[in-house]
Amino acid sequence: MADINVTPLVDVLLVLLIIFMVTMPIQSIPVDVDLPQKTDTPVEPPPNPPDPIKLRIDASGQVFWNDSPAAVDELESKMTEEVQRDPGNQPELQIDTNESAQYGVLAKVLVAAKNARMVKIGFVQN
Fold it and tell me: β-pairing, 63-65 with 53-57?
């Protein structure tokens, strides 16, 4: 008989696989999640929400604040000014990016929004 019997080899491999699966430590990474808490009084929406801020980034990296050109460096001061008008009723920042725009410009815009403490940020897709 010229055939090789692989059954013992398969048995040993399956036993080793089970041993490694059982003895391998399960890696868990804790994730902090802020869940909403129950309140007795319903939250009322603001009476007059402000108009959203339309921020557009074109393919060349130029940023437009409500359809007027703006430098990336001055965005944080503009956003801070908008937040300080009414911190409890902030306008929504609607970001529209061209699909060929560089990610670095978008990252600078998001950092500016974070530093200005904007909480309502949305992405617009055409």
Answer: antiparallel
